Amino acid sequence: MKYIKFLGPLILIIALPSSFKTQDSTSIHNLFYKKQQQSLSLLSGWSVANLIYSPLATKNLFSPETTNEYFHQMNFSWNLLNVGIAGLGHIIVNKDSKKPWNMQTLYDKKKKAEKSIIINIGLDLAYMFTGLLFKNNAQINTSEYSMNKGYGNSLILQGAYLLIYDTIFLMKLKKVLVKKKADKAELTN
Which pTM was predicted? Predict the structure, then answer.
């Protein structure tokens, strides 16, 4: 009986730190997926705004003739793709956040996400560069002047937005500190 009175508090003392560790790793897990959902919401908002505004800003979205009409046609088309990517991303992140995990898998997922974002930043720069090529290739005397200039301006705008978006997302993701070993996990906001 004497040992039982001593054993109860001892078990509590031993179990308490491990429950804190579990809560800490759960917080890190939740923060990691929250940052992804927030980022995807930002992309979704941008895409929906473009899909609403582009048809309102031009009368000939589907048969453009002017630089402005080509600009809005490209914005509309580009953001149809973006809204599809963001929607699929929301589904995948939501599903992935409910799967069994440990700190090692979370660490691996974070590193993979960071690598993907770095690749996306390179693509964003390529979109902007391609837009500059289109825009600068628009010769005044050709019938393709309006199309090249409109599409070029749109690619520059969309690439610039995505560059800012990806850079901010990468910085936010880097603040979620996940280390390989569960006993060294950290949480910062």
Answer: 0.80
